[in-house]
Structures are given as structure tokens and as C-alpha cells.
Design goal:
The complex is a heterotrimer of chains A (292), B (275) and C (274).
Chain A: H1 2-7, H2 14-47, H3 52-56, E1 59-60, E2 65-66, H4 69-99, H5 106-120, H6 123-137, H7 144-168, H8 172-180, H9 185-214, H10 217-220, H11 240-250, H12 255-281
Antiparallel strand pairs in A: 1-2
Helix pairs in contact in A: 2-12, 4-7, 4-9, 5-7, 6-7, 7-9, 8-9, 9-12, 11-12
Chain B: H1 2-34, H2 38-41, E1 45-46, E2 51-52, H3 55-86, H4 89-104, H5 107-125, H6 132-156, H7 160-168, H8 173-202, H9 205-210, H10 228-235, H11 241-268
Antiparallel strand pairs in B: 1-2
Helix pairs in contact in B: 1-11, 3-4, 3-6, 3-8, 4-6, 5-6, 6-8, 7-8, 8-11, 10-11
Chain C: E1 22-33, E2 36-47, E3 51-55, H1 62-69, E4 79-87, E5 90-91, H2 99-105, E6 106-109, H3 120-130, H4 136-149, H5 153-156, H6 169-182, E7 187-191, H7 199-211, E8 217-221, H8 225-231, E9 234-241, E10 244-252, H9 253-258, H10 263-269
The chains are: A mainly alpha (292), B mainly alpha (275), C alpha/beta (274).
Chain lengths: 292, 275, 274
């Protein structure tokens, strides 16, 4: 405790303490104000656009008129493709990493490290990859399938990390007593660990959905721009975020529907965020899982 | 059972290699033809005439990222201090939610807001408006939550005994934070900075929408710039042959930068998670 | 009790209280976590149908010793066990040994009560079902017997579907014992089963353990010498020597508490270094 005493000598002057408190509070206020500005702007100018017609009708006149019906459908389909691939892959990996590998296992380390890198890869690079791999090499073209698969690669690290947290929050004693009762690992996994890890898995799912519907750059070259109602997963479909981008950059006079679409997107994300928080708080197991 | 799970994990782990392999595969044609050096020494970026100088865009990326990291780091850390040590519990909770929401706002929405609100404001101050400054400010808002949330988490891990010890020595609040909390949370804070840098380097849409996309090395913060990411997004749609290949080179550079950052972050991160 | 559970019919439960021969026998048993030994060269014979108490200071390998006996050590990464463990004719440490069957024969109770996050009934029924008991009536019968054996039946018979977590700490621990008993084991390994409980619950669980004597071979790790003296037939003293756990002395309760052979035992019993 000698060190803090030494380092804190300047703070003996009360004005520094007061100044820093002032600084901290003003930063918080400024950030809150900017947040309110962005949100207020979108809410204020977007709310007027929202109507049943806007949400259901197809866009017309490059999106200046009409609505975002087919775009919402495409967004939903991209999401379904994304999750139906990433969820089993992510859950399986999380189960393997948290239940079947030791912390010092080389293979587990390697997988974790590569997932860390994957989570840092810029979305535009995912776009490049999705375009060459899914659209061209696998021949899926600009399609909802290409877009969804690209997003699946992107959200995988988020899903895996949250699911792993969920498994790690299950007390170690459960595994020990299950084993000492002679239960197989499969039974333990299905009947005890998986149910107990559900909150963590759901949080990951919600965060993954959030990341996926917010994504734009990875979708421009994979699911494409076509704003018609998709008839199959091999159709190109315009995601909501791509729609906002296109309206604001490429369509003069597209600001008003862009505000409306942005509001829809932000409201969706706020709802998802709230859901993740609510579920996260129910993750009530005391954590601290130590084998020894 | 174990084997199938291991196979799944192997697929998930190999994804990053697959991505790297595809990027490298696509860059090979141009790299074999002109090599790596022209990407920094050619007189201009004019891929249809086989001129591939990425340097201005690399500078654009680096300036925008550096500026936003310099702004967002202190703001984010002060935000986290606010949550942990200054705000009453209720306000801290609300503020944390707000930061989480900021983190969740899509980059295209930030870009759109920047385009219709921030760019005209800057334009009035110093034309043209779309500029490095606009990019830096928008990026700051976007990466701030990353620092704020990591800093918040690493402050929360500082053992309460340290704080009690400091309090029993009669240290002031700021003295405690500066002398005890920051040193104790140092590696967590550093991780946050590295993560936000990665995000800033890789951001595409918002930057694309507010920076003006002129290929030039900026002389002032009011100059329009084009980043590597924006360049890919803008030209990929019509790029063919070596041009396309050159865009993949910039993708590869980005991926290399981010991978290096992640490896550094992993190396300094306190080893408490994977135990 | 014997015919309820067809798979267990052949188990030696009925012929059990044969205290002349040891039920579990270890030879030169050592356990290492990485390079660090937890205990070394333990030769211990655990008499059948009796309560044997493992005592000694913290960190001398008593709990690790227990986890060897039902091969729970398999779950611990970078843990190595050498030596031999014989359970009847079974070579416990043999890689070919069926651990599921082994753990059914040797139940285990941990220090902290840890019922699964399921209903009271399912806490007992789920492991039974996993061991192949599908008949609902049979399960109900085994559950009732096990709960009666631990004195919990009257307390919970009206709320078998309530979450197990709603029970008190002492009740939870008794439920965990019932959960082990439902599998009709031959031996019970208990790792300080009373130390996380309040004094009254601790007394109830202690009486319960004493009441299981002669029906099961019981091995209890405890820090509480008075408890060991009250319930145990035999005592084994572990001690930390040269940074690794050693078995110092074994004997009947009288021998250990009244005529210890080792000076360490004498000192420990008298609380000099306890």
C-alpha cells in the first residue's frame, strides 16, 4: 500500500479531485447528449414515415415512394439462413471447447485463437470472402443464401463466446456429481448442462441477430441490391441496412424513407438489446468453475 | 460424440484460414504480375491503367483510425470511471445501457446521421464538409463503446480490497483512481484500446458515407479522404481482372493489420478467462 | 430392496456386511497434478460395511484420494494416478474398467450440497432412468425408499415436484445422499459432507451417516475429529510430508484416539498442531 500513497500525492489538493469529478461528469453528459441527438434526430424525422403501408408495401421509384415490405422479408430470410447455419456450428463448438477440452489443450487453444481473429476481421473482408467463396466458387450468385452464409461466418465467434460463458456459469459440482452418479457425458450434457446454459446461449443468439441485422458491408456483394420480394433463397434480396445505405448515398431525395428505415432498424436493435439484457440478468448461477 | 463435436470445432476454427486462403488466392494474379512494392510506389491509384498506389488510402485509414482512437480512448475510459466510481447506482446502470445501445447502433445508421447532420455542419465551418474530420468524429462515436465497456469490465475486476485499502489511507477519489485503479486495470484498458483500433481500421460503411472518398493523402483534417475499406466497397462492384485482384490486396492488408492487433491483444490480456 | 432393480440383482449388497475382508484396497497409490504430487504411496484397506474416516490437515490429499476411488480423476485435466486400486475383483484403474458401472457401485457425496436444478423427484429419477430403469412404478418405489432412508420422505412427499433448490441446505445434502442411495451402491464416498451445513443440519446428516453403517461401506473425509470419533469404526490419518500427502497411520477408532503409534497422530489428536 506504499505505492498508491506515493502516487496520489497530487490529489492532496482538493481542487484536482473536484476538477476530475467535473471532467468525468461532463464526458458522461456530452456522450449522453450526442446519443440523444442521434436518437432524437432519427426518431423525430423517422416517425413521420412509419405507417402500415410503409412496413408492408414494396419500394417504388428507387425507394423514394412505397415502403420496405420486401426488404423486411429479405432481411428476415438472410437472418434465418445465417442462424440455421451458425447456431448448430456455434453450439457444437462451444460444447466442445467448454466441456470436452482442457484449458491447456493445444487444439482448443488454436480454435479459440482463430475465433478471436475471426471476430476482429473487418466486415468488408467478410464481404470479399463471401463474394468469392459463396457467390462465385460455390455458384450461389448474389443471393439471400450467399448473404446469410457470409453473416453466419461473422456471427459465429459471438455465438460461441456467449454459449461458452453459459456453460462455464454452470457450477463444476454438477459435472462432478453427475459423473459420480455414473451418468454418461451425453446424458449430463443434454439433461443438465444444456438446460442450465440456455440463458447464455440465448444471449449469444440475440447479440448475433443484432450484429447480423446491423451489417451492411458484408452484404453489398453477397445478397445484393435487388429490392423485389424474394421468391427463393437463391434470389438476391436487399437487407434493411443496405436499403438505408442505398437511399442515402445513391438516391437523391431518398432521405425521408431512409430515416424511416433507420428508425425501424434502430427500434429492432433496441428491442434485441433489451432482450439480451433481460435474459443476461437471469443468468443467475454463481460462476467460478474450477476443477481443482 | 466427441469426434463430431471436434469436427465442428475444427470447421469453426478453420474458417479464418479459409478466408485468408481465399484472399491470398485472389491476390495472386496481380502480385505475380507486378509484385508487392508498386502498391506503395506507383504514382497514383488508377487500376484501369495498372497503377496501384494504395498509400493515400492506407494513410486515410491510418489517420482516421488514429484520430478516432485518440479521441475515443480518454472519453471511453472516463465514461467507465463515471459508471464505476462517480455515478449513483441507478444512473450508472442507465448509462451503461446507453453505452451498450451505442455499441448496437449499426454503422450504416451512424453513417447516415453523419451524412445528413454532421457533414453539413462541418461544411459550414470549413467546406467541403465530407472530410477526415467527419470520419474521425463518427468513428469516435462508434468505437467509444468498445473502450468504455472493456474499461468498465476491467475496473469492475479491481479487487475491492484495494479500494478499501486506499480509502483507509485517506486517499481522495481521484487519487485512488489514478494511483490504484488505473495501474491495477492497466492490461484490461490496453486490450480495450487495441480492440477499438481494430474496429476503427475495419469500419467501412460510416466512413464511406461521410469521408468524401477522394483518393488523396490528406493535408488537413478538412480534406476528403478515401479509406482502404471504402475503396473496396466503392470499386468491387465493377472491378475486373487485376483491378479486382488489387482490391483483394487491400483486403489482405486490412486483415493482416487486424490479425496482428488481435494477437497482441490476446498476448497482453490477463489469463483469467480460459481457465 | 434387492428385486426392484434388475440390473443390480447380482450386486453383492445382500452378502455385504462381511467386515473380515477389505472392500477397497489401494496399493502404492499416488496422484499427481502435473508434476505436483497430491499424495504418494498410499496403502489402505477399507473394511467392508464399516465407516472409515479420513482425517488430517487441509491440502494433504484426502479429497483427491476419494476422487481416485471412483475414477472421477478422469475428469481432471493433467491429473495422473499411479499404483493399484482393487474393488473386490475389479482393477479400478484399469483403462478397460467401465467407469459408469464403477460409479454406480461407488456413490459420492460432495462437500457442498448440489442437487441438480430439477425437481426433487427428478433429481433421483433422472439418474435412475439413465441407468436403464424405465418403469415409472419402479422408479417411484426406489425414490420413496431412498428418501425414506435419508429421513426426507415425510418432509417432501407432498412436494416432490418442487424445485430441489427450494430445500434447506441440510435437506439438500440429504437429497444428494438419497440420490446416491437410489442407485443402490455398495460404497459411499463422502467429502466433508457436513462442513457446509449449519450445526443442527450437520447433526442430522451425521446421524444419517451413522445409521447407514453396515449397509454400505462408507469412507468419510472430515476435519472434525470429534465427528470422526463419534461415527467412524476406523480412522486413517493423512499428513503433509515433503510437500506431498502421506498416509501416516490407520487403525480402529480406539487405537487412533487412545493409543496412537505415530507421534504425528498423537500430536494431531491432542490438537497440538491441529
Amino acid at each position: 500500500m506504499a505505492k498508491p500513497l506515493q502516487r496520489s500525492s497530487p490529489s492532496r489538493s482538493p481542487w484536482l479531485d473536484r476538477l476530475s469529478a467535473f471532467g468525468v461528469w461532463s464526458v458522461a453528459l456530452i456522450i449522453t447528449a450526442i446519443f440523444a441527438w442521434i436518437m432524437g434526430d432519427i426518431l423525430w424525422r423517422g416517425a413521420g414515415q412509419i405507417s402500415w403501408d410503409f412496413l408492408t408495401l414494396p419500394p417504388q421509384n428507387a425507394g423514394r415512394d412505397g415502403g420496405i415490405g420486401p426488404i423486411l422479408v429479405s432481411t428476415g430470410l438472410i437472418l434465418v439462413v445465417c442462424l440455421s447455419v451458425s447456431l448448430p456450428l456455434g453450439l457444437g463448438t462451444a460444447v466442445f471447447l467448454s466441456e470436452f477440452t482442457a484449458a491447456d489443450n493445444g487444439f482448443g487453444r488454436l480454435v479459440r485463437r482463430s475465433l478471436d481473429i475471426l471476430s476482429g476481421v473487418p466486415s468488408i473482408v467478410f464481404g470479399l470472402f463471401g463474394y468469392t467463396f459463396f457467390a462465385q466458387t460455390l455458384g450461389l450468385g448474389f443471393s439471400i443464401l450467399s448473404g446469410g452464409l457470409t453473416l453466419a461466418c461473422m456471427v459465429l465467434p459471438i455465438l460461441i463466446r456467449s454459449a461458452e460463458e453459459g456453460f462455464r456459469a454452470v457450477p463444476a459440482d454438477y459435472r462432478l456429481s453427475a459423473a459420480s452418479l455414473g451418468l454418461s457425458r451425453t446424458a449430463t450434457l443434454w439433461h443438465l448442462l444444456l438446460p442450465a446454459a440456455v440463458p447464455g446461449i440465448v444471449v449469444g443468439l440475440v447479440l448475433g441477430i443484432g450484429r447480423a441485422i446491423a451489417e451492411t458491408a458484408a452484404l453489398i456483394f453477397t445478397s445484393g441490391y435487388v429490392d423485389r420480394m424474394p421468391t427463393s433463397l437463391l434470389d438476391s434480396g436487399r437487407a434493411l441496412s443496405v436499403h438505408i445505405f442505398d437511399l442515402s448515398m445513391n438516391v437523391p431525395g431518398g432521405d425521408a424513407p431512409a430515416y424511416g428505415s433507420a428508425l425501424v432498424l434502430v427500434v429492432l436493435l433496441i428491442l434485441l438489446n433489451g432482450a439480451a439484457n433481460w435474459i443476461g440478468r437471469r443468468l443467475s448461477f454463481q460462476s467460478g468453475f474450477h476443477w481443482r | 460424440m466427441v469426434w463430431s463435436l471436434q469436427a465442428i470445432a475444427a470447421i469453426a476454427g478453420a474458417l479464418v484460414l479459409l478466408i485468408a486462403a481465399f484472399l491470398i488466392g485472389e491476390t495472386l494474379p496481380v502480385l505475380q504480375k507486378v509484385g508487392f512494392l508498386p502498391f506503395f510506389t506507383d504514382p497514383a491509384w488508377n487500376p484501369t491503367e495498372a497503377l496501384y498506389n494504395l498509400a493515400p488510402m492506407l494513410w486515410g485509414t491510418l489517420f482516421a483510425a488514429a484520430g478516432s482512437v485518440l479521441l475515443a480512448t480518454p472519453l471511453g475510459i472516463l465514461s467507465a470511471m463515471f459508471c464505476q466510481y462517480y455515478a449513483p447506482a441507478g444512473i450508472a446502470l442507465l448509462y451503461r445501457r446507453l453505452i451498450e445501445l451505442l455499441a448496437g447502433i449499426p454503422s450504416v445508421v451512424y453513417g447516415f446521421w453523419g451524412l445528413v447532420t454532421l457533414v453539413p455542419l462541418i461544411g459550414r465551418l470549413h467546406p467541403p464538409g465530407p472530410s477526415l474530420l467527419a470520419g474521425m468524429l463518427i468513428l469516435t462515436m462508434m468505437i467509444l463503446p468498445t473502450v468504455a465497456l472493456t474499461a468498465d469490465a476491467s475496473f469492475a475486476k479491481v479487487p475491492p480490497a484495494y479500494l478499501q485499502g486506499a480509502a483507509s489511507l485517506g486517499l481522495s477519489r481521484w487519487g485512488t483512481i489514478w494511483g490504484v485503479v488505473i495501474p491495477a486495470a492497466k492490461s484490461g484498458l490496453l486490450t480495450g484500446v487495441i480492440l477499438e483500433t481494430g474496429r476503427a481500421l475495419g469500419e467501412t460503411m460510416a466512413i464511406l458515407m461521410v469521408c468524401g472518398n477522394v483518393v488523396q493523402t490528406p493535408q488537413s483534417i478538412f480534406d476528403p479522404i478515401r479509406t482502404l475499406t471504402a475503396n473496396i466497397a466503392l470499386e468491387m462492384a465493377y472491378a475486373l481482372g487485376d483491378h479486382r485482384s488489387a482490391l483483394f490486396v487491400s483486403g489482405l492488408i486490412l486483415m493482416g493489420l487486424v490479425t496482428a492487433l488481435v494477437i497482441v491483444a490476446d498476448a497482453i490480456a490477463p489469463e483469467e478467462n480460459h481457465g | 430392496m434387492t428385486t426392484l432393480y434388475p440390473k443390480f440383482e447380482t450386486s453383492p449388497t445382500s452378502q455385504h456386511p462381511d467386515s473380515s475382508s477389505p472392500f477397497i484396497c489401494t496399493e502404492q497409490l499416488s496422484l499427481y497434478y502435473g508434476p505436483q504430487p497430491a499424495f504418494e504411496q498410499v496403502n489402505l484397506a477399507i473394511p467392508a460395511g464399516q465407516i472409515t474416516s479420513l482425517v488430517g490437515p487441509s491440502g494433504c490429499g484426502k479429497s483427491s484420494f476419494l476422487t481416485c476411488l471412483n475414477r472421477l480423476t478422469d475428469l481432471i485435466s493433467n491429473c495422473r494416478v499411479t499404483g493399484r486400486i482393487r474393488l473386490g475383483n475389479l482393477d479400478v484403474l484399469d483403462a478397460k474398467t467401465d467407469t459408469t458401472a464403477l460409479r454406480r457401485r461407488v456413490g459420492m457425496i460432495l462437500q457442498k450440497p448440489n442437487p441438480f436444478p430439477l425437481s426433487i423427484w427428478r433429481n433421483l429419477a433422472f439418474p435412475l432412468r439413465e441407468h436403464g430403469v424405465r418403469d415409472r412404478a419402479q422408479i417411484d418405489e426406489i425414490v420413496e425408499t431412498a428418501l425414506q432412508d435419508v429421513g426426507l420422505w415425510d418432509e417432501v412427499k407432498d412436494r416432490l415436484k418442487a424445485p430441489a433448490q427450494s430445500l434447506s441446505g441440510g435437506q439438500q445434502q440429504r437429497l444428494c445422499i438419497a440420490r446416491a442411495l437410489a442407485l443402490q451402491p455398495e460404497a459411499l464416498l463422502m467429502d466433508e459432507p457436513c462442513s457446509a451445513l449449519d450445526p443442527i443440519s450437520s447433526g442430522i446428516v451425521e446421524d444419517l451417516i451413522a445409521g447407514l453403517r453396515s449397509r454400505y461401506t462408507i469412507l468419510v473425509v472430515t476435519h472434525n475429529l470429534a465427528q470422526a470419533r463419534r461415527i467412524a469404526d476406523n480412522v486413517a490419518l493423512f499428513w503433509l510430508q515433503q510437500n506431498s500427502g502421506r498416509l501416516i497411520e490407520t487403525g480402529s477408532v480406539q487405537e487412533i484416539f487412545e493409543a496412537p503409534k505415530s507421534s504425528i497422530t498423537a500430536a494431531y489428536i491432542n490438537g497440538v498442531r491441529g
